[in-house]
Amino acid sequence: MNLKIAVLPGDGIGPEVILQAKKALYAIGEVYNHEFVFEDALMGAVAIDKTGNPLPEQTLNLCLNTDAVLLGAIGDPKYDNNPNAKVRPEQGLLKLRKELGLFANIRPIKPYKALIESSPLKREIIEGADFTIFRELTGGAYFGTKTLNEEGTHASDLCEYSEEEITRISHLAFKSAQKRRKKLTMVDKANVLETSRLWRKVVQKVSEDYPDVKLDFLFVDNAAMQLILNPKQFDVILTENLFGDILSDEASVITGSIGLLPSVSLGEKNALFEPIHGSYPQAKGKNIANPIASILAAALLLEHFGLTKEANVIYKAVEKAIEYKVVTVDLKPDSKFGTNEVGEFVSNFI
Amino acid sequence: MNLKIAVLPGDGIGPEVILQAKKALYAIGEVYNHEFVFEDALMGAVAIDKTGNPLPEQTLNLCLNTDAVLLGAIGDPKYDNNPNAKVRPEQGLLKLRKELGLFANIRPIKPYKALIESSPLKREIIEGADFTIFRELTGGAYFGTKTLNEEGTHASDLCEYSEEEITRISHLAFKSAQKRRKKLTMVDKANVLETSRLWRKVVQKVSEDYPDVKLDFLFVDNAAMQLILNPKQFDVILTENLFGDILSDEASVITGSIGLLPSVSLGEKNALFEPIHGSYPQAKGKNIANPIASILAAALLLEHFGLTKEANVIYKAVEKAIEYKVVTVDLKPDSKFGTNEVGEFVSNFI
Ligand SMILES: CC(C)[C@H](C(=O)O)[C@@H](O)C(=O)O
Ligand SMILES: CC(C)[C@H](C(=O)O)[C@@H](O)C(=O)O
């Protein structure tokens, strides 16, 4: 197979972890005879620094014309604590999601056997948990009109949803539930928000096409609690953009480390793969960042293009790295292995 | 002391747990020579059923003219799964918060020693955790304009904040931090939301009045993770309405049971005390609901009026109930004690 992949290393630890993902893909390409062509481009703070624009035209065009996008991480504290910054790294990411029409972000959550003890949750709570979060990614308060009055004393964010936006991701989520344990939990705040009530109505309607899937509803405050009290109750979780942002990061604690979790964002034509962790600037250049989430993002990419066998080799390699404790300090505080060594182990295994 | 207290038992288990809180207050009144006059009124689904209005005029007037409000819980599934319901129990609660100007909801989080094992989190994670969440309660998406187009295919919720709304709760939160470990964590989504950027700016400004308090910022997705990974890092958390709703329910898992947590909502003139759990309709009338959160809400009420000694007696009684395992099934699955027995134990102890 020939694949052209746009690579956006981004900020902080992005470049180092993405390098390891590329190495894994190169190794796969060699062994299984695929040609992966990578083209790097700028996005995030690094793009602002070099071009003034968090998503330069060139980067966007590249992403629109490749088979897939592999993203590291974006974000820089120098923008976070400056409420007056006019241009911010995140705008690049949000614009990219919108322009590529990446309406569904999908995050699988499952603890690794060998890491069960490193979760803050008790073994009996997380052992056997296995669910997937479908987060709507191009709507809601992320993209609604924002206002700030001239005096800078009054601000607003509009959260909007249309039936169409809810319908398309709902179908994806129900289809996924059909292939799993046939349960879908819709998370919303329908007792307060009008958009949530629309979500409930539309999801109920879509569910008629999937009579074999059991649908239930949870308020987001309760969901945030249930994820920790009893994560095994979930199979597929479906929710809007901001709730999905919060709940999927929260759910990462179940796996023992956010450094292990990849996600895929899907549109009609495009797909983007990334680790879910952030740019973690304090760790930049120290060879301590966990590359596994990025390597697994590469595996999701392979799966997306039907290269299941190849993806499985990566999953296997990562399992071995964890089993042999070839892991970074987030998973083993006294580890002598760094980003490079973990990445090396994985590509050698392939 | 003479206190006139409006009691709104509400829906589901509300009436049963509130009864136990009243019993505790009666006992305190007798022993310490205070006169607590209770006046019950309707709010929630029960008010809709009887009057068509989730917050009847009479209830509102009563609350405006009493020293404090003691609330059970509101909510009924018959409204939750009907996106077309025009009147819902929650509207009563939201209207009450608005009319009484209850702009700050305060929830202390601290695990009980005797219950540490019943948390889904490991002992070493939660032992020693002790923080308070300040949630803004009369602004944000809860109260902004809501729209639904005629075809019912497009909905919106507006999240709005003004400098003034942010300033008043910030002062409360900073003052509380000064009396505690002098750390305040502002939780927002300033990398995406305009309202969050306003929060950051205003809180930074208010912080100048409290140079002894260390201020830091966390994005809400990260905060949802940090609450579970390392709850001991927090002292005072300050956040907007919806984020506070999610995070404070999530944080309840640290204490081992949501059935233990009371909260107080404060305005310039009024104060409302309630358990943070919901109406839990499945448990209604079964004598299995945990009354402790409501009893502790009564203790918070006493503290609010300076009756510290009396409040401490209640805290002590609750600790004893937990120590002697006179608790409901949420805390001890094979318990033979119910709502009444736990309430009885506490008032006898007084
Ligand atoms: C960086 C930020 C804008 C982003 C989001 O909130 O969507 C991130 O938290 C994520 O979840 O991918
Ligand atoms: C019942 C509901 C409207 C309410 C809220 O969301 O504020 C509840 O969850 C709470 O936290 O008091």
Would you kindly provide a written description of the structure presented here, covering whatever features stand out?
The structure is a homodimer of 350-residue chains. With 350 residues, chain A is α/β, with parallel strands linked by helices. Chain A folds into two domains: 1-102 and 267-350, Isopropylmalate Dehydrogenase (3-Layer(aba) Sandwich); 104-264, Isopropylmalate Dehydrogenase. Chain A has helices spanning 14-32, 45-51, 57-64, 77-80, 89-99, 123-126, 163-179, 194-207, 220-229, 241-251, 292-304, 308-323, 339-349; strands at 2-10, 35-40, 68-73, 104-109, 131-136, 146-148, 154-162, 183-188, 214-219, 236-239, 262-266, 271-275. In chain A, the strands form two sheets. In chain A, strands 2-1-3-12-11-4-5-10-8-9 form a ten-stranded mixed β-sheet, sandwiched between helices. In chain A, strands 6-7 form a two-stranded antiparallel ribbon. In chain A, helix 9 (220-229) packs parallel to helix 10 (241-251) and helix 12 (308-323) crosses helix 13. The radius of gyration of chain A is 20 Å and the shape is globular. Strand 7 (154-162) of chain A pairs antiparallel with strand 7 of chain B. Bound molecules: 3-isopropylmalic acid (2 copies). One 3-isopropylmalic acid sits between chains B (75, 90, 93, 245) and A (191-192, 221).
